[in-house]
């Protein structure tokens, strides 16, 4: 997708937090009046652990036409989307299967997980650690700036509601809930062993791809994608796998799965009021039953026909970990049923 010149431009633009922040300041100054006039209404933040249907869910909501979301067309200057739209032209790239090799295609206008570039530029020195991603509350000034960023995306893409696909937002849920009191926080989840096996498979694939193409590794790091691959870093919640644990084993991913979902279940009351735990397995198994309820909760139409159930896999894992994750999974399912049934 990227030529040598494209790669150089991305390296210059995305590789420097100072430059990213400068482009944001210039864009915000240019759009000050329109930012003040822009209403942020009922935004949706999709955040959890990867490989739980986050991409499909994002596309289903985005297809309603009510949402504005960052896309690859905003790169390599995602914090100045309106200025870059005028300068960068209308480049066309044919839709192609994404690197996950999971059958999903994307192009420059597909809604994508680009938002984390903002947080990395503004707060990266606080939450990004060599051993993982730490749950650190953003500074109030950063949160105010993020509201401006959301307005810039709404201005650029023309929707009335902001749609975020960013798993790293689980690090800052309390602050997001306080900044956007009418937001919906959607946490998709799957059967723990199946999700862990999918994460392991993607980790191995991403490591191999990065070995063949070093730019891919840098690109994922610039976008703040550390879910798997050569620069994989776990969320540093209680019970997370440590630096010496082997990410090529399914037990690593089961441990990560449990630590993330226990943290989500233990969110403070202000967050819980906005949380929606979505059992992706149940949604795919009974789309006609659950898709209308999801549409009502998200206040957006959902095309149930677009849902696809992942293939089930088999593997051996630590029985104690399987028992622990089964308990957490049951709690997640109870929260799901409480909202959907």
Automatic annotation (TrEMBL):
Cited Pfam families: Sulfotransfer_3
Protein name stated in the entry: Sulfotransferase family protein
């Amino acid at each position: 997708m990227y030529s040598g010149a494209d790669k150089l431009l991305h390296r210059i633009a995305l590789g420097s937090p100072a430059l990213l922040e400068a482009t944001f300041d210039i864009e915000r100054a240019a759009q000050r009046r329109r930012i003040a006039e822009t209403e942020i209404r009922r935004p949706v933040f999709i955040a959890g652990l990867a490989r739980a249907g986050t991409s499909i869910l994002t596309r289903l909501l985005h297809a309603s036409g009510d949402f504005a979301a960052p896309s690859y067309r905003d790169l390599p200057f995602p914090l100045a989307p309106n200025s870059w739209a005028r300068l960068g032209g209308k480049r066309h790239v044919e839709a192609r299967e994404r690197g996950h090799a999971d059958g999903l295609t994307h192009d420059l206008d597909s809604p994508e997980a680009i938002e984390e570039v903002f947080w990395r530029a503004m707060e990266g020195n606080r939450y990004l650690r060599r051993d993982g991603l730490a749950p650190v509350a953003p500074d109030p000034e950063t949160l105010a700036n993020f509201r401006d960023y959301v307005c810039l995306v709404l201005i650029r893409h023309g929707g009335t509601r902001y749609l975020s696909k960013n798993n790293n937002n689980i690090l800052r849920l309390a602050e997001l809930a306080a900044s956007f009191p009418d937001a919906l926080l959607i946490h998709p989840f799957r059967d723990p062993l199946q999700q862990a096996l999918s994460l392991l498979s993607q980790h191995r694939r991403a490591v191999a791809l990065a070995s063949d193409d070093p730019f891919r590794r840098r690109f994922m790091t610039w976008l703040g994608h550390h879910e798997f691959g050569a620069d994989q870093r776990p969320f540093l919640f209680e019970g997370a796998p440590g630096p010496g644990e082997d990410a090529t084993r399914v037990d690593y991913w089961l441990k990560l799965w449990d630590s993330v979902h226990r943290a989500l279940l233990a969110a403070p009351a202000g967050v819980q009021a906005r949380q929606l735990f979505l059992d992706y397995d149940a949604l795919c198994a009974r789309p006609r039953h659950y898709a209308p309820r999801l549409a009502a909760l998200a206040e957006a139409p959902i095309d149930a026909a677009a849902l696809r159930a992942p293939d089930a896999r088999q593997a051996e894992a630590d029985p104690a970990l399987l028992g622990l994750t089964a308990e957490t999974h049951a709690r997640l399912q109870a929260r799901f049923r409480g909202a959907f049934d």
